[in-house]
Amino acid sequence: MAQLTEAQKDQFWTEGVLVVEDAVTADELAQLRAVINGWIEESRQHTEDYGETLDGRKRFDLEPSHTAQQPALRRVQSPEEVSDVFAHVMRNARTVDLVAELIGPAIRFHHGKVNTKLPGAATKVKFHQDFTFQPMTNDDMITALLFVDDVTLDNGPLEVVPGSHKGPLYSLWHNGVFTGAVADEVHDAHQDRITTCIGKAGSVCLMHASLLHGSAPNLSDGPRTLYITTYYSEDAVELSPNALPSTLTHELVRGEVSGMIRCIAYEMERPEVPKDTSFFAQQENAN
């Protein structure tokens, strides 16, 4: 049975973004929250990034302002590797069917992460395009941002530039440094077109990987947590090292293997694989 209407599909391909409610069940959402709350409590015991991912970097990324009294866990890399709950949602949630309708029928999992903005933390994301971190032979690639909490105008919602996925791929390199962000003048040129993606917990924001986006700090007294999974068309192949490799990378989650490679024409600079825990440090180091 179709998960999306033709109008929703048209909106996605026109604007590069679509918010859909009830992307997970109430039980799945409750289980995700329980695991995340456990990680936040665990983070109180640490003063610096901790845990280890497949490539040797840290799994749990702490905001510089993090303390035991006011935890500021801002990212968990590849949560599917260390939580059966997250692995289940990555493979089986309604989110996956929504993505398959847009870029399938056959799709693979690329990477996953949890981004949290806890009250009082200064976590923000400068504008960028996901695709320029991870070029593929074709751009049928979707970042699915699952709202674990209600996302409001006050708690640091995703900010996007509708239609920008059809435009150029902007450089993340400035003065010889890979900053993980587009130039200020690129952001300023699109300022009047920026919109926010808000919705109730359990909704998902489906975002084309080439869409310009960022987000501001959480100014509310409640958390804003996203479980972010990236999926891509089965006939796409990576053109640079995966910045978030995991044991589940490239897992086929819908459809069948075609044995084909599909290519499109585009040009961009090679991305730099982060040496720190995550791209937050890349953006901070560029300041």
Commentary on this structure:
This protein has 287 residues and is an alpha+beta fold. The chain has a single domain (6-285), classed as Sandwich (Jelly Rolls), CATH 2.60.120.620. It contains 6 helices and 14 strands. It has helices at residues 6-15, 26-43, 84-92, 94-103, 184-189, 279-285; strands spanning 17-20, 60-62, 73-77, 107-117, 125-128, 141-147, 158-160, 173-174, 177-178, 195-197, 204-208, 213-215, 224-233, 252-254. The strands form 3 sheets. Strands 1, 2, 3, 4, 6, 11, 13 and 14 form an 8-stranded antiparallel β-sheet that branches. Strands 5-12-7-10 form a 4-stranded antiparallel β-sheet, with no helix packed on it. Strands 8-9 form a two-stranded antiparallel ribbon. α3 (84-92) runs parallel beside α4. The longest helix is centred in the N-terminal third of the chain and has 18 residues, at 26-43.
